[in-house]
Write a structure and sequence with these properties.
CATH superfamily: MFS general substrate transporter like domains
Number of strands: 0
Strand content: under 5%
CATH class: Mainly Alpha
Distance between the termini: 46 Å
Structural class: mainly alpha
Largest sheet: none
Number of domains: 1
Helix content: over 70%
CATH architecture: Up-down Bundle
Amino acid sequence: MTKVRHAARTTFRSLSIRNYRLFFFGQLVSLTGTWMQSLAQVELVLKLTHNDPRKSFAVGLVVALQFLPMLLFGAWGGVMADRLDKRRALIGTQIWMAFVAGGLAILTFTGAIELWMVYGFALLMGLGTVIDNPTRQSFVIEMVGDEDVANAVGLNSAVFNGARIVGPALAGVMIGSLNAIWPCFALNAVSFLAVIGGLYAMRTSELHTPERVARAKGQIREGLRYVWTDPVRRSTLLLVAVIGTFGLNFTVFLPLMAHFAFHRGAALYGLLTSALAVGSLTGALITAGRGKPTPKLLAGAGIMFGFFMLCAAIAPSTAWEMVALPLTGVGVMTFMATANSTLQLGSSNEMRGRVMALYALVFLGTTPLGGPLVSRIAEAYGPRVSMGFGAVMSLAASLVAGAVLVRKARRLPADAHLEVGGAQEPAAA
């Protein structure tokens, strides 16, 4: 029992910090609503296209439009994250996204919703993400300080995936029992109040607030140069870009697999999403209990993700799919949490917002490229081939990047290591 208690204290130690605890539980509520909306949005698109498998592209397009602003303006969002008061900025973005979800709920409830409107609301939600995502990512270290940032990143991943278990399951039950989609959007709008309330309740005197970056020319170029000239940051972001483009399209893969590979509907989609999230939650908690990230862990998690995603693509039955997806989830979340921690720990305070914006750009902003691509493959060859293609690309990229990162790590001096704040960073090879 002593070892169990010690492991629990180590894994959940950031929750002892009041400001982070408020943020954590607010995110749990809000992200549950977000995942409810994610499933409901796909079901709405399928309903408006009359469940025609030849129109699978519409599913990929609505996902792509939601992340298109990140692709176009993500770097600018990172500059804003470095300049603005992060707590106040997050309150603003949460209010914006609550109004967007509320508008979608009203139009769906009244029956006035059309496909082009769903596209428009996805785009509006994406505009809020441009500032929200890098600000939220870089705000973590202000709540917990240098020592606990890796643990807090792991717990953030855990709450994200805990919500991904509950949200789609609730949405699937709600849509099936009420035969209505709009309540999912309405509940998501209300859920943002939990984050807003938590942010207002924080003790600002306990935040580790760095000096804000002053407005200046060339700050986006400065951020790009800062990432590109360091081999660890560069290799990590390139690997996230490939996996984000080809592999992390489960909002496209899973509904198409549920509807057209296994010939079932929203209930199975919610179940598959929850199975993936169970594994992701496990991976996040494992990562939260570890120390600092390593290149071997990053590459190994990427390889695990690609391999089990390939198994999920060829699974002959829903039973085998339910075995492969949790293992896929462990791999992907261990990979993403490790990549996130690597970049946060290896970035200076004044550059962290821009680095995390580039992380969000290659993680989320590549979806407008990958989503339509894998949708087209699904239209032409079926969802299994589309998912298998993403798995092979992710696996190949992880093998290549792993070889590069491990070789770079071996070339470092014995005393070189990542340190938060950028005081000491790996030497460039």
